[in-house]
Design goal:
The protein is built from 10 helices and 5 strands, in the order βββαββααααααααα. By secondary structure, it is an alpha+beta fold.
Length: 199
């Protein structure tokens, strides 16, 4: 599985783009949310990717952030939703907007996206309801190969505390007590756990 690509943007023509990675041109399809953040042609860029294998084609999808890719993958698990509709959702709403739509059970908003009828919109809301918590976790933003150290450490600490069984709201509260610039992931976790014991 190809997790990400880093290279130069050779072409962008929504929904298609081409990435030149050491002389190899990778064709990707991407949502508009990713296109808005792309640099000019010829500039370096890094994208998270997801490969869809069909009988007649292998299609690589590119995303500017890991949260976009996770939402895309979550949508593909909904029966009746394929890559085209998933791209449409990401093109029509940010990850945050989509999460709010699901929480508010706003069927009408989803129906505004091309290819989504009432039944599909209802199914998306029902089947994605449980995934909303996971999708709203902080993730590495921007360049997946060189994320900001502070963002990365906070994000890794968040994931680690979730894995330890803490609930997202509790983790957010614990991380506030360890919110100091320049701390390593290990130090953030150590301080957060110390704070949890005191609470």
């Amino acid at each position: 599985m190809i997790g990400f690509l880093k290279g130069r943007l050779a072409m962008k023509q929504p929904p298609m783009l081409m990435l030149d990675v050491n002389g190899v041109g990778y064709e990707l399809e991407a949502p508009m949310s990713t296109f808005y953040g792309l640099p000019s042609t010829g500039e370096p860029v890094a994208l998270f990717t997801h490969l869809v294998v069909r009988e007649d084609a292998h299609i690589l999808f590119g995303f500017g952030t890991d949260s976009e890719r996770r939402l895309f993958r979550g949508l593909l698990k909904v029966s009746g939703v394929g890559p085209k509709i998933a791209l449409g959702v990401l093109s029509g709403a940010s990850v945050e907007d989509f999460l709010r739509t699901v929480e508010a059970e706003d069927v009408a908003m989803l129906q505004r996206i091309p290819g989504i009828g009432r039944k599909t919109a209802e199914r998306i809301i029902i089947e994605m309801r449980d995934s909303v918590q996971k999708l709203s976790l902080p993730t590495l933003q921007g360049n997946p190969l060189n994320p900001g150290a502070a963002q990365s450490a906070q994000s890794e600490a968040f994931s680690a505390l979730i894995a330890l069984g803490y609930k997202p709201p509790e983790v957010t509260r614990l991380l506030k007590s360890a919110d100091e610039p320049g701390l390593s992931t290990t130090e953030i976790i150590r301080r957060a756990l110390k704070s949890a014991v005191k609470a």
